[in-house]
Amino acid sequence: MSLRTLLLTGLAALVPVAGVLPVSAGAAQGGGGEPTVTHEVVESFDGVPIHTTLFWPAGAGAEDPVPVVMRAHGWAGHGERGLDEASSTTMALLGAGYAVLTWDERGFGYSGGEVHVLKPEFEGRDASVLVDWLATDPDVAPMIACETARGVGGSCPDPVIGMSGGSYGGGIQLLTAAFDGEFSSTTSDGRSRVDAIAPEITWNDLRYSLYDDQVLNLGWGEALYAVGLPAAQAEGLDPGNPAGTQSGGLDPRIHQAQAEGLATGRLSAESVDFFGRSSLAVYGAEHPVRVPSLFVQGSVDTLFDLTEAARNFGHVRERAPARLIVFCGGHVSCPASYADADDRRFIDRAILDWFAKHLRGQDVDTGPPVAYRTNAGVWRSAGDFTPRDAAFLTASGAGSVVSTPVPTTIGLDDPGSVLDQPTNTAPFIAQPNRAGDPHAFTVEVAAARGGDLELVGVPKARLAVSGIGPEAHLFLKLVDREAGEVVNLQETPVRVENLSAEPQRLHVTMSGVAYTLPEGNHLDLQVSTTSLMHTAARTPAQADATVQVDVPVRRR
C-alpha cells in the first residue's frame, strides 16, 4: 500500500488493531444477551453539539449499576457508533461488564466546533460536560456505579469512570484526568472524577513529537495535516448528521503552523506555544495527573516514541499508581523482521486487569511497573524504563559530514515520489546511510559476544560540533549493522546553528529503544545530515563532530 492510499484511508486516526480477547479479571456478573447501543447529542459548555454513543453490557440496569469507560478515538476519526464498528477492546470491556461511552471529538465526526488539538478550555471542558451528563441524566445515572452516595433524583455526583483509547484518544485522557476537577459541575473538591486511565500511543509534549530541537518531523506533520483537514470538514456536513449540519474545521493556528513549516522550515514562538498547551509536559506543572494510569507505547512508533512514554510514566508514578507496556507497533506497523508476541492480547488483558483493580477495587495483580518486548518477541519485566539493573555501553568517535540544501535519498534503491513509497520505507522511519556516504559517519558501539544484548531504555549522547555554515541538522541513529536496520526505526534530530571553529557542546536525549541485538551482530551509531522523516537544513554546511553515546543494555 502506498502512503498516498494510506493517507486517503485515514492513516493517523487508527489505534492498534485489537484481536478478540476472552474475558479476564472483572468479568460481568452473569447476564446473557447482546449489549445495547444508544445515541445522544450532548450540548457542550458553549452550545457545541457533541455526538455520543453509549454501549450498555447485557444485564446492566438500575439494580445492577456498572462502571463506565469513556473510549476516545484517534486524530481525524470518530467514536465507535455501533457493535459493527466496535473494536475488540470495546467488546472485551462490554464482556467484562463495563458500559462504554464513545464520542466524536470537537470538530471531528458529527460533532460541531473547531479542532483545537486538545486544549483544556475546549476539548477538556467537552469531556467534563460528558461526565456531568453521565452523572445527572435521569435515564443514565442510575445505571452507573458511583463512588459516593447518590444525590436527589438518582444523580451520581461521582460516577466510577475509566478512560481508554489511543493517540489523540490518549491525549484526551491525560487532559481530562488533569482538568476535570476544575471543570466539574457535580463535585466541589477539585478532584478528577476519572478514576483510572489507559492511554495508548500518545504524546507527552507535541513540541518534542513534531519539532524536537527545532527540527520539523515533516513526514508526520504533513500526514496529520493531510488527514485532519478533510476529516474536520466532511462528516459534519452530512445531511443525515443527527447533530445537524456542522461546518467544523481546524483552528487557524494549525494552518499557520503548516504554512510556517513549509515556507521556512521553522515554527514561530506562537505556534510552538499552541502545541505546547496541548501537552502534559506544559499543563502538568500546574495540573498534574493524579489518577492510576496504564501507558501503552510502541517501540517502533516514530510519531510518539518511548522517550515520551517514559516521561508520562515518570510524571504519574510520582503521584499515583502507574504502569508502562512497550509493544511492537503504534503509528508504524511492527516490522516483518520482528517476532510476534501476541501484543494486542497482552495489552487488552492488562487493560482489563487495570480497570478491575482501579475501577472495581478487586484484588488483581496488574503486573510489574514496566513490561516490554523487543524484536525477539519475548515479554520482559522491569522496575523502570530505563531498567534499574541496566548497564551502559559507552562509545565515542568523530567524523565530518556535509549538509546539502537538497537531501540525498538514503536507504532506497529507487525512491521515486515519496508519496508512492510503501509505508515501511518512507517517510515515517529512519534508514541507515550507505557506506561511504559523505553525509554520514559511523561509530561502532559494541558487538554482541557471548550472548544477545538487550537494548532497553533511553540512550543519551554528547556532541561537540564545529564547522562552516549557518546551520546543520544532525540525525543520530543506532543501527544493527548485520540486519541493515535502524534500531526500532528511530532517529533523533539535533539542530546546530552558527557553525564555527569553536565547538558547540550539546547533550542529547535520544529516542527510547527496546531491541535485541543478536549474538554476533554489531551496534553502530550513525551521525547523518539526511533524513526522510525530518527536515534537513536548507543551506549548505560542513560539520565536524565528536560524539559519545551511552546505550542502556541488559545481557541475555
Characterise this structure.
The chain has 556 residues and is α/β, with parallel strands linked by helices. Helix content is 22%, strand content 27%. The strands form 2 sheets. Strands 1-2-4-3-5-6-7-8-9-10 form a 10-stranded mixed beta sheet, sandwiched between helices. Strands 11, 12, 13, 14, 15, 16, 17, 18, 19 and 20 form a 10-stranded antiparallel beta sheet that branches. It starts with a helix and ends with a strand. 54% of the residues are buried.
Name the descriptors.
11 helices; Rossmann fold; globular; Jelly Rolls; ten-stranded mixed beta sheet; ten-stranded antiparallel beta sheet; 20 strands; disordered N terminus; 556 residues; alpha/beta; 2 domains
Summarize it.
The chain has 556 residues and is an alpha/beta fold. Helices cover 22% and strands 27% of the residues. The chain is globular.
Q: Indicate the CATH architecture of the largest domain.
A: 3-Layer(aba) Sandwich
Our estimate of the beta-strand percent is: 25-35%
Radius of gyration: 24 Å
Q: The CATH topology of the largest domain is what? A: Rossmann fold
* Strand order of the biggest β-sheet: 1-2-4-3-5-6-7-8-9-10
How would you characterize the largest beta sheet? 10 strands, mixed
CATH class of the largest domain: Alpha Beta
Note the total helix count. 11
The CA-CA distance between the termini, in Å, is 37 Å
User: What structural class should be given to the helix and strand makeup?
Assistant: alpha/beta
Q: Outline the low-pLDDT stretches.
A: 1-31, 407-425
Summed over residues and divided by their number, the pLDDT gives a mean of 90
User: How many strands in all?
Assistant: 20
Structural domains: how many: 2
Give the proportion of residues in helices: 10-25%
| Overall morphology | globular
CATH superfamily of the largest domain: Alpha/Beta hydrolase fold, catalytic domain
